[in-house]
Amino acid sequence: MRSRPAVLVVRCDAKIGDSLLCLPFIRYVRQSYPEHEIHLLHHASARAIFEQCSDIDRRIEITWNPSSPLSIWHRRKLCAATFEAIEPGVSYDAAFAPRWDYDLFGPFMLWYSGAKQRIGFSSKNNLRRRLRNFGSDSLFTRTVTDVSVRHESIRAIRLLDRDIAGLSKSLPSINYRWSAGDFQCVCERLAALRIDTRRLVALAPGAAGARRQWPLDRFAELGRRYTQALGAEVILLGAPSEAQACERICAEAGVRLQNNFAGRLTLAQNAALLSLVEQFVGNDSGLSHLAAAAGCPSIVQISCHPLTGDDNHANSPLRFGPSSQYATVLQPSVPAAPECKHGCTHDDAPHCILGVTVDQVWDVVVGTRRN
């Protein structure tokens, strides 16, 4: 039997950005339960984020797709099997499901954990959760209803019955750590490639879904202005699947191909590299949140969400903008079509995001660098 009681946090998302935004909640769980072990159930793709978190005593990984529209029977079977694999003797005084949007597996995970207290957000909070989590409130011992507009780095803290009024004015820091070895590896690679770190700028053209992706030719034009007008050293960051797009930007912007780091670094090495850059420009993606976690002194995020859109939309920067006081988010002033009045609905190609021009981004770049 374990000598210390335990608390469970369930965050099944496979997305890097959402996982990073969960770190402040885990920190507050640790503060609220100082005598307990903190266990986290998470997707294996987020391992690099959580394995260095000192607030977590034990991690439980899942590998299946948490967004898969399986039947309730299949979901129950997967969740039950997860806890059957844990050794006997583990019991939880409390378990939390901090996801505010619809959560196909979180409520079942809490139920099968056997926790005495099972706390999560009510299905009354938004329409998608009401439809896709129908009946799941009965799996909790306590639900929290919150229809206000809040940043996702602080919203879940409400589950702990803590006052978050002050946090809304100053977002909590994302405490993501990388090792000294990761930092040394990055520095050695930069030195070997003779990349000047004194005016280092990072561009990240990738994002989940085409509607969140600012056109590549605009990134190329931005890169060209950085090099020609400011004499900056431009590097490209992204996933392996984005390496070809980053290569195209290098070619069109006149940036050396060796400055394309897309797919060549681990997550921790990306964070270490971002800690060295003086400015980051990217889409609404995990890398923009990683830049905030790395302490980048200037972050410019290009959003597809219209200024007049729903503030609680899944693309709203009021919910998912970088958690940094040094971040600026550029949005289209109006939706590109009537059907996008709540938020951009086109996911086959860039749409509303086309309303953000290169000149608008450049004005912010120059202004923030001057300040």
UniProtKB/TrEMBL annotation:
Which InterPro entries does the entry mention?
Glyco_trans_9, LPS_LOS_Heptosyltrfase
Q: Which GO terms describe its cellular component?
A: cytosol
GO MF terms here are: ADP-heptose-lipopolysaccharide heptosyltransferase activity
Name the CDD domains for this protein.
GT9_LPS_heptosyltransferase
**Keyword line:** Glycosyltransferase, Transferase
Q: Which domain of life is it from?
A: Bacteria
Q: In the UniProt record, does the keyword Glycosyltransferase occur?
A: yes
Instruction: State any GO BP term from the record.
Output: lipopolysaccharide core region biosynthetic process
Q: What is the protein name stated in its UniProt record?
A: Heptosyltransferase-2
Species = Rubrivivax gelatinosus (strain NBRC 100245 / IL144)
